[in-house]
């Protein structure tokens, strides 16, 4: 049996970047934020009210403003 | 938990037979009212969770009670399927979020955000507590029924729901803390008598999907739709609860769901359902059915609550 794919990072089309495990994510001001849950969603649309984390805001953006 | 107040002859007889072996199990549930049937099924489902005070644990597997449960479940599933039209030309993993956005229904969070009174929110919390105090439990039944990839993916999501090993972070415990701090009884099932038929049916649908292996895809579709309609409404709940001066513990429950469910919605669609449908592509229609049922029942439950609040406001005026 071959190994299953299990990436540390998953890029969600139109949505966030998922990170598995412990990471430190820098916000726009260069301040580091440590992940606290088993999987963390990092904002890629820059419109989240919880930056650097995703809060689902990308879903209410028009398609051309969502990250590819 | 105490047995709830009966809502008709079926739940009356059912409650009596659960308390005493001298009372026979009721038969022919079809003639009972929707409310009576729905409460009866909710009662029967609770035997598989935490049971009732004064009711023998052995009754969970009583063949006659199981027969009644199955009849009520068949009626529920038939009614849910009648409301559902499968989407055409869509791929679940790619199109799910846009499909959910197009099926947006009545929103309690929008009302709580700007307009609801404290009393209305307390009433909503009492009804919602039926689910929030057992959050994720119906989904836990799915674990042994999945293949390796889907099972690992679901556990990754559920591990966070259950606090990643820390009981202080377990989601349904966070809700209990919020209820207690808001002056409500945090005991499981304490407010079942306050629940509308629609709220009971929401809970019954989740338990139906969780208990039946053949409905595993519907259960995961329901989970995905539930998670995909949580982050943004939870943000509005936070702001509404802060506006009304609710305690930090309750605000914290909803604040947790803003970021947690932004993760869970992606996992539920991409890793959990993605893996299930890779292994068993013939189950995609049921995933849509479960997702539709989640959104449809939430719309009906929210509409019923909003209509009640509008009636209250008319009475006051």
Descriptive account of the structure:
- The complex is a heterodimer of chains A (68) and B (317).
- With 68 residues, chain A is mainly β.
- Chain A has strands spanning 9-11, 17-20, 24-26, 32-34, 39-42.
- A three-stranded antiparallel beta sheet of chain A has the order 1-2-5, with no helix packed on it. Chain A has a two-stranded antiparallel ribbon with strand order 3-4.
- Chain A is flat.
- The model of chain A has no long low-confidence stretch (mean pLDDT 94).
- Chain B is globular, with a radius of gyration of 19 Å.
- The A-B interface holds A 4, 10, 12-16, 18, 37-41, 49-50, 53-57, 59-60 and B 94, 97, 101, 148-149, 152, 156-157, 159-160, 164, 231-232, 235, 258-263, 265-267, 270-271.
Keywords:
heterodimer, A: 68 residues, mainly beta, three-stranded antiparallel β-sheet, two-stranded antiparallel sheet, B: 317 residues, mainly alpha, 14 helices, 67% helix, 0% strand, globular
Tell me the layout of helices and strands.
The complex is a heterodimer of chains A (68) and B (317).
Chain A: E1 9-11, E2 17-20, E3 24-26, E4 32-34, E5 39-42
Antiparallel strand pairs in A: 1-2, 2-5, 3-4
Chain B: H1 9-19, H2 34-46, H3 63-82, H4 92-102, H5 108-114, H6 118-132, H7 137-140, H8 148-161, H9 171-181, H10 197-211, H11 216-228, H12 231-243, H13 248-279, H14 284-316
Helix pairs in contact in B: 1-2, 2-3, 2-10, 5-12, 8-13, 9-13, 10-14, 11-13, 11-14, 12-13
